[in-house]
């Protein structure tokens, strides 16, 4: 049976921190689907299509990485594509507390899906999409945190 994992998030944008987690997950799975979900609590600055394209460009040479999008519950998306694992990254203790709670809820909703946690590399622990969005919106240098260039900010 193929081991399929879902690495879900808003990825607005997909940072080097996300890349770090995905690189750690790839050796354990046959396929990892980077799934862009719609989070109603977050205001997205970039379209789903832009985000998907950026991730596809980063992993163009890696057939184990697929990119998709979904609406609704991540565990339902896992069920739809036959994924038995969810990949999550942990930068700090606050992430752990939130992610543990989410993993327990997800297990109740779909006991066939196991959440696998990966610790961020210390060099990536301070990187967040929120930080990059703020730097980008203020015209500051965000390049150390991304593997690609964001579009020019609209006036």
What does this 3D model show about the protein?
The protein has a five-stranded parallel beta sheet with strand order 3-2-1-4-5, sandwiched between helices. The chain has helices at 16-25, 48-58, 74-81, 93-109, 129-137; strands at 4-9, 31-37, 65-70, 85-90, 114-119. It is of the alpha/beta class and 155 residues long. It is globular. The protein has five helices and five strands.
Helix content: 25-40%
How many helix segments?
5
Element-by-element helix/strand order: EHEHEHEHEH
Tell how many strands the DSSP assignment holds: 5
Mean pLDDT: 94
| CA-CA gap between termini | 51 Å
State which percent range the strand residues make up: 15-25%
* SS-based class: alpha/beta
- Side by side, the strands of the main sheet go 3-2-1-4-5
Shape: globular
Radius of gyration, in angstroms, nearest whole number: 15 Å
Low-confidence stretches: none
Largest sheet: 5 strands, parallel
List keywords for this structure.
single chain; 155 residues; alpha/beta; 5-stranded parallel sheet; globular
Map the helices and strands.
Layout: E1 4-9, H1 16-25, E2 31-37, H2 48-58, E3 65-70, H3 74-81, E4 85-90, H4 93-109, E5 114-119, H5 129-137
Parallel strand pairs: 1-2, 1-4, 2-3, 4-5
In short:
With 155 residues, the chain is of the alpha/beta class. It is built from five helices and five strands. Strands 3-2-1-4-5 form a five-stranded parallel β-sheet, sandwiched between helices.
